[in-house]
User: What shape does this take?
Amino acid sequence: MDELFHIPQAQKYCDGNWTQWDPMITTLPGLYFVSAFLLKPLELICNSSIVFCSTFSLRSINFLFTAGNAALLFLLSLKRKDGDKVYTWQLALMNAVILSLFPILYFFTFLYYTDCGSVFFVLLMYLLQQQQRHLSAAFSGMIAILFRQTNVIWIVFMAGLLAADFIRKFSGVKHPGRDSVDVVKLAIKKFYHCLQHNRKELYDHAGELLWILPYGFVCFGFAVFVVINGSIVVGAKQDHQAGLHFPQLFYFAAFLGLFSFMYILSVENIRSYLNLIYQHPFIFITIFSAGGVIVSNFTMVHRYLLSMVVVDDDDDNAVKDLIPNMVLVG
Assistant: This one.
């Protein structure tokens, strides 16, 4: 696990050593800043021999983040609507607990890793965005990037939500179930109408659209970081290079299918699927053939994917140079 890198780095920050950096760490130091901010004051206040930045204490940080995630999921669930029905607090609580125990995320609750904190600040950004507190939301998104650089996509998503809400309001459509294409057409039509006859209304609405700017500034700052840094990751750049990895979509589909099988696998759905294949065989042959080509040509295996490598004794040094910190058997 990457705890081998994260824990010593966090302990350096707790000791006030802000300049020493492990070149194998790929993420920004958000997790270490938060850990030092929370744990170091306890050590100063208690003035004892207890090591507050121990492995146990650092792992406890993720437990706090998990509790925070449950609270944020509860608040977000209260805002959900199923048609005209609003979630009751009991249903919102159940939803928060279920999502907090999501297997992939729950696994990291008891380890010192960036996942729990990353999810916490993304959820906080979303809640603040829903509350129309866009400056705070953008700031939370910036912290989320300090935990995981890929969280920049969620900042773009928040800006997209804001833009979509603006288009819906500007178009005058009040029914949320209206087709998105129709909403965009109505917004464009109204835009040209206002441009010719009522420019004041355009100026009035422009102020609402300006709230996208905080998200844009964060994205721009991240783009500057990537250009200066020469990569999205901080360390081990040679092993973390951007590329086209289309099979990720298949992994996601398989994962989604596994955890949704109780909704998907019904006699009616299977019958409908087989009928669809029978009616459009050429389309399905094309899709499956394209999938085979994608798997054959775009599958990437990460060099650190395996936790154990079986090699001959003569090859130990070569593999150690290629894949550090692996368990070698042979």
